[in-house]
From TrEMBL, chains A, B:
Organism placement in taxonomy: Bacteria, Bacillati, Actinomycetota, Actinomycetes, Kitasatosporales
Protein name: TetR/AcrR family transcriptional regulator
Keywords: DNA-binding, Transcription, Transcription regulation
Domain HTH tetR-type residues, every copy: 8-68
Leader sequence residues: none
Classification via InterPro entries: Homeodomain-like_sf (IPR009057), HTH-type_TetR-like_transc_reg (IPR050109), HTH_TetR (IPR001647), KstR2_TetR_C (IPR041490), Tet_transcr_reg_TetR-rel_C_sf (IPR036271)
Regions recorded as binding DNA: 31-50
Length: 195, 195
């Protein structure tokens, strides 16, 4: 039994608690009991907000995916040369990762045991494919080196970007910090570390 | 009860089975019973080889760490300009990751709940630090761009390299494949994707 507090949760604030628990215990390892304890409200109060833990997972990964796919509609992602577009998308992906850190962390960790997880993985692959297509267009323009396979380059690029969720921890008031991070990723990926 | 087969394991072959189980179930989620079932021999037969599952973990991560630290003693890692050394170490790290894939995968996933895990994490940090020192020396020579922070560059480099364990699956007879992979990582990290 938990000392249940008054349920003042909104869908947003309850989601934030659930995502933290999912990231700590893994989605599979999280029960409604764990969510109830972390939120400090009863299980039936949680059921007042959502149908179950899979709905919370769906909302959380949808938030991450909306952030990522939203980038592809921005002017910087659709205007100019493909090489500029792909650099823009890379920079903005880092920014979305950082601003939606717990949601993207969860998205990157889902493993495909439920329908929601499989859907999330499928959408992630679609996003990667869109970036890969931009790299291909940039290669066709002669702006990407021809001696690196595009599929491999896409994987290495996302390997670098996605690793952020494992080690990046935002500093207090770190807006400049975040810009510097996005810039460092773009420079390293597209221009390399060598002078 | 499992239909126990005759115990023909060597320390090496038993380790290979254990590492596979650790990577599938997580080290924490693996019991001696799981190991016994996967190996097809009784628990007491396993105790004939090792004191327990932590000894298996220790041997496995030691094998990965020996492979990685061995690189730093090779002529290519100690002779020439620091920039050449760090490119050499990056290339060889990819090669060791691929040739010791299950062992390095396990090393990268340990989370620090036991003494062996904490030791492994400490050794990993030492390795990262050695590479970071090489990058610093290369920067002091003016061979690394001065607008990217070295600690950040080290993390992004390992983010890219370590992501291999999540998606790289060796092809049959893929020696050339493996060289191409190491070369692609070095080119992208040090020269960038842009022409």
């Amino acid at each position: 039994m938990t000392a249940a507090r008054r349920d003042t949760y909104t869908p947003e604030t309850l989601l934030a608690v659930a995502v933290q628990v999912f990231n700590e215990r893994g989605y599979d390892g999280t029960s409604m009991e764990h969510l109830s304890r972390a939120a400090g409200i009863s299980k039936s109060s949680i059921y007042h907000h959502v149908a179950g833990k899979e709905e919370l997972l769906h909302r959380a990964v949808a938030r991450a995916l909306d952030g990522l796919f939203g980038i592809l509609e921005e002017p910087g992602a659709v205007n100019g040369r493909p090489i500029e577009q792909v650099e823009y998308v890379t920079r903005r992906t880092v920014e979305v990762l950082v601003s939606e850190l717990p949601y993207v962390t969860l998205l990157l960790r889902v493993r495909g045991n439920t329908r929601t997880e499989r859907w999330a993985m499928e959408r992630r692959r679609e996003f990667d494919q869109r970036v890969s297509d931009l790299l291909k267009a940039a290669a066709a323009d002669g702006d990407i080196r021809s001696d690196v396979d595009i599929r491999l380059a896409t994987r290495l690029l996302f390997g670098m970007v996605n690793s952020l969720v494992e080690w990046y921890r935002p500093h207090a008031g770190g807006g400049a910090d975040q810009d510097q991070l996005a810039e460092a990723v773009v420079r390293m990926a597209f221009e390399g570390l060598r002078t």
